[in-house]
């Protein structure tokens, strides 16, 4: 008879997903759910919470069947540059405008990789900025202020 064992890495991840899903599901019940055809403000968060619970359960089941790899070193550089990038964008988009904010956000996020050099990072940020302005400002016509009041020109 095979003994029951669970991979600690995947088991922990699955338990976190299930726990977060349950937390958000309970929180969504505080809002009006509505029906499928007339969704209330709590409907979509409840659906996403159920998907998160389902994914967590799948990971937990998988953790009992397959031994995973141990948790490696934490990528601190990536966390310190990727996580604040959207916060920086949100704080500066009204003051700097869309173009400088998206450029600087892309530049910050590009340096999360230890292999990124300054010239490719600048080219990447310029490409992301051009693409974003073309899509969001011109193609979709979203009312972004391209350059904000913090800039003198």
Structural features, described:
The protein is mainly α. It is about 65% helix and about 0% strand. It has six helices and no strands. Helix 4 (about 85-95) packs antiparallel against helix 5 (about 100-110). The chain is flat. The relative contact order is 0.11. The mean pLDDT is about 90.
Total DSSP E strands: 0
Taking the sheet with the most strands, its summary is: none
The rounded distance between the terminal residues' Cα atoms is: 75 Å
Low-confidence stretches: none
Give Rg in angstroms. 22 Å
Total number of helical segments?
6
Structural class per helix/strand content? mainly alpha
Strand content: under 5%
pLDDT averaged residue by residue: 92
Give the % helix: 55-70%
Written as H for each helix and E for each strand, in order along the chain, the element string is HHHHHH
Q: Tell me the overall shape.
A: flat
Layout of SSEs?
Layout: H1 8-28, H2 43-65, H3 76-82, H4 84-96, H5 98-110, H6 118-139
Helix pairs in contact: 1-2, 4-5, 5-6
Summarize the structure.
With 153 residues, this protein is mostly helical.
């Amino acid at each position: 008879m095979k003994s029951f064992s669970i991979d600690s890495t995947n088991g922990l991840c699955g338990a976190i997903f299930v726990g977060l899903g349950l937390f958000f599901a309970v929180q969504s019940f505080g809002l009006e759910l509505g029906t499928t055809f007339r969704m209330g403000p709590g409907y979509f968060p409840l659906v996403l919470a159920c998907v998160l619970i389902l994914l967590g359960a799948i990971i937990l089941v998988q953790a009992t069947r397959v031994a995973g790899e141990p948790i490696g070193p934490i990528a601190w550089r990536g966390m310190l540059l990727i996580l604040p990038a959207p916060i920086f964008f949100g704080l500066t988009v009204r003051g700097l405008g869309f173009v400088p904010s998206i450029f600087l956000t892309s530049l910050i996020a590009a340096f999360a990789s230890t292999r990124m050099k300054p010239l490719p990072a600048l080219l990447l940020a310029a490409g992301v900025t051009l693409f974003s302005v073309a899509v969001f400002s011109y193609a979709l016509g979203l009312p972004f202020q391209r350059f904000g009041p913090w800039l003198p020109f």
